[in-house]
Amino acid sequence: MIRTEDIHKHFGALHVLRGITLEVTRGDVLVIIGPSGSGKSTFLRCINLLVRPDEGRVFIDGVQVNRADIRPEWVRQQVGMVFQSFNLFTHLTALENVALGPIRVKKAPRDEAETKARQLLARVGLAAKEQSYPAELSGGQQQRVAIARALAMDPKAMLFDEPTSALDPEYIREVLDVMANLAHEGMTMIVVTHEMGFASSVASRIVFMDGGIILEEGRPLDIFEHPKNERTRAFVSKILR
Amino acid sequence: MFRSVESVLGILIIIGAGAVVYDVLAGSRGLDLGYFQANWLRYARAVQVNLLATSIAFVVGMGIGFLVGWARSTRTQPIRKILSDFHQAKVQGTARGRSALAVTIAVAGVRHYLRRIADGYVEAIRGTPLFVQIIFAYAVATTFYPRLAGVEFFAGVVALTINTGAYQGETFRAGLQTVHTGQVEAARALGLSRWGAMRHVVLPQALRLVVPPLTNEYIGLFKASALLYFISVFEITFLSKQEAYQGHPFESFAMITGIFLLITVTIARVVQYFEARFRIPGLGIEPARD
Ligand SMILES: Nc1ncnc2c1ncn2[C@@H]1O[C@H](COP(=O)(O)OP(=O)(O)OP(=O)(O)O)[C@@H](O)[C@H]1O
Ligand SMILES: [Mg+2]
């Protein structure tokens, strides 16, 4: 479904990604953990080409997408993204936020897009909030709208970049529940998160990244209970506490 | 409730102060009330010249200001970065042809210099007196078109346009830059193009943000249009000075003050009303409260 081969990325003198090779099959949920600055966000952004990899190849459904003859806009329609800071469009209501992509990118008729947006908002438990502006919603509600906004494009896969780390603790649960449901419905997902409960119950695989490379990879139980790498062990014991 | 009582109190104090000033200046002589009735139409006609000059300059200046603000808010890639990207791409075999590279470099170069020109324009205009700009524009216009009818009005409008263009450029730059980069990123992540993100996400927010400062700019420009008197545009200050020398200094002063206040306060209030009416929670500065 999503495959990367030897991805490298430099920011000036910084060598942020130093050869990331990964494969996520359809319906898999891959969780990426790792210390701050290890390149997790940069890697996610390389997949939907918000950041262009300097070297290496990104495949979606078997097609190499980081090529000059493929429009990045097309690639981004295939994979949805949810950000740490929600980034809902401030000037639009929840409903308009969700309908914007279908209307402006897919050129869907407005009423059709809005009907679908209503369904998606209901699915994330926010049917009552469709007329609210982002500033009138709690962090948890904003993030759920952001998930619905990404889903509105009918993506083949979803990328989550620390979706709960900007949330007050009382709102984390509702967002994770929506994500878990999505996973159970068979969505292919790559999730950067340090929510260990979510990772162990939902993830099919966990990847530990440090210093721009993948240090260890395995099933949740293996990574959390029997990490092989010394640094994985140190990191895991720190976040499990 | 309390607030309106206080406002009334404030107005009473101002009127009281006005009465004292009146008493000191014109008390012994008295205001000629008949003068207002006989002459208000002439003042109203004269102020139309100010409004016309201001409005033309403001609208044309808005076009200039938008382009300048946009040029100044974009980031350009250094040529070195473009070349190294090209080199990287060549190593991977994903590079496009040399002509594509040449186009990229040319576009980056043009954008770079457009931006520098915009910077220079804003600095030069904001760093010099408007008064000097008006006189300069007038001098240039009369040198090249000495016999053109209405050359002073033309020169005045040009000066005001160039001036407000620079100030509005700063306003637009600030407005565009205030829209968070996360908004653009989210838009692009949905698959919108650069221009699509601009049109559907950045502009709707930026344009709302610039309404209050642009209103102030219009009011400021309208007041500044009084300076056109110095290049003999027959506008309200010109008329009022003439009248003052013909024996009606207090009346003409009261007239011009009243007219300026009436117009500026009305504009500010009307814009405030619409702003409150169409305000979006979380966008822009919250209105004053007590
Ligand atoms: N656009 C950019 N320009 C320059 N440097 C960048 C850019 N984006 C990221 N970096 C740098 O790359 C490194 C990796 O950043 P990245 O955001 O991918 O890490 P991360 O693993 O997501 O960290 P965190 O857990 O803090 O989110 C950091 O040192 C960061 O400062
Ligand atoms: Mg990150």
Output mean pLDDT of chain A: 93
Bound molecules: adenosine-5'-triphosphate, magnesium ion
Q: Roughly how many Å is the radius of gyration of chain A?
A: 18 Å
Could you state the order of secondary-structure elements of chain A as H and E? EEEHEEHEHHHEHEHEEHH
What fold name goes in the CATH topology slot of the domain at 44-72 and 128-275 in chain B?
Answer: MetI-like fold
The first-level CATH class of the domain at 44-72 and 128-275 in chain B is given as: Mainly Alpha
Helices and strands of chain B, in order, run as HHHHHHHHHH
Order of strands across the main sheet of chain A:
6-7-8-3-9-10
Largest sheet of chain B: none
Which range does the strand content of chain B fall in? under 5%
Helical fraction of chain A = 25-40%
Amino-to-carboxy terminus distance of chain B: 11 Å
Distance between the termini of chain A: 34 Å
- Helix % of chain B is over 70%
Query: How many strand elements of chain A?
Result: 10
Low-confidence stretches of chain B: none
Work out the strand percent of chain A. 15-25%
Please provide the count of β strands of chain B. 0
Largest interface in this structure: A-B, 32 and 29 residues
Shape annotation of chain A: globular
Give an overview of the whole structure:
The complex is a heterodimer of chains A (241) and B (290). Chain A has 241 residues and is an alpha/beta fold. Chain A is 39% helix and 25% strand. Chain A is built from nine helices and ten strands. In chain A, the strands form two sheets. Chain A has a six-stranded mixed beta sheet, sandwiched between helices. A four-stranded antiparallel beta sheet of chain A has the order 2-1-4-5, covered by helices on one side. In chain A, β9 (205-210) and β10 (213-218) form a beta hairpin. The longest helix of chain A is centred in the C-terminal third of the chain and has 16 residues, at 169-184. Chain B is mainly α and 290 residues long. Chain B has a domain at 44-72 and 128-275: MetI-like fold (Orthogonal Bundle). Helices cover 80% and strands 0% of the residues of chain B. Chain B has helices at 2-26, 33-73, 79-92, 98-126, 130-144, 151-178, 181-189, 194-224, 236-245, 249-277. Chain B is elongated and about 90 Å long. The A-B interface holds A 48, 50, 54-55, 66-68, 73-74, 76-77, 80-81, 83, 85, 87-91, 100-101, 104-105, 133-136, 146, 149-150, 153 and B 88-89, 91-92, 94-96, 180, 182-183, 185-193, 196, 200-201, 204-205, 208, 280-283. The structure holds adenosine-5'-triphosphate and magnesium ion (MG). Magnesium ion is lined by residues 40-41, 161-162 of chain A.
